[in-house]
Amino acid sequence: QVQLVESGGGLVQPGGSLRLSCAASGFTFSNYVMSWYRQAPGKERELVATITSSGSRRNYAGSVKGRFTISRDNDKNTVYLQMNSLKAEDTAVYYCHAARGLLASWGQGTQVTVSS
User: Fold this and answer.
1) DSSP characters over 61-114
2) For 57-116, what is each residue's pLDDT tens digit?
C-alpha cells in the first residue's frame, strides 16, 4: 500500500535550519508530483512547495521563497524540504503529499516548532 513517512521535524530557534524527509513506498515514486504542505494551529492546510516528477521544476509559496528548498531523490524514493532562516510563523505540522492525476496520498505529518 502507499506509504509516506515524514521525519526530521523538531524544535528549532528562530533563524535556525531543519531538513524534513519523506520516504515513499508502495507506488512508482518517480511518476508522482511531490509536495509539502503545512498546517498551523487554527489555520487551514497550505501548500508550501511542489516539485515535478523529474525534479526539473519547483514552486514555492511566497512566504517561504528564498528560505526553503524542495528536492527529491528518485533512486531513494525520498523527497526533502530544506528549511533555512526559520521564523516563528513557520511553526506547523508539515505533511508530505504525492499526486498523479486523480491519485493522491498524504503522510502522517511531522511537527516543526520554531521558538526561542
Assistant:
1) -TTTTTTEEEEEETTTTEEEEEE-S--GGG-EEEEEEEEETTEEEE---EEEEE
2) 999 999 999 999 999 999 999 999 999 999 999 999 999 999 999 899 999 999 999 999
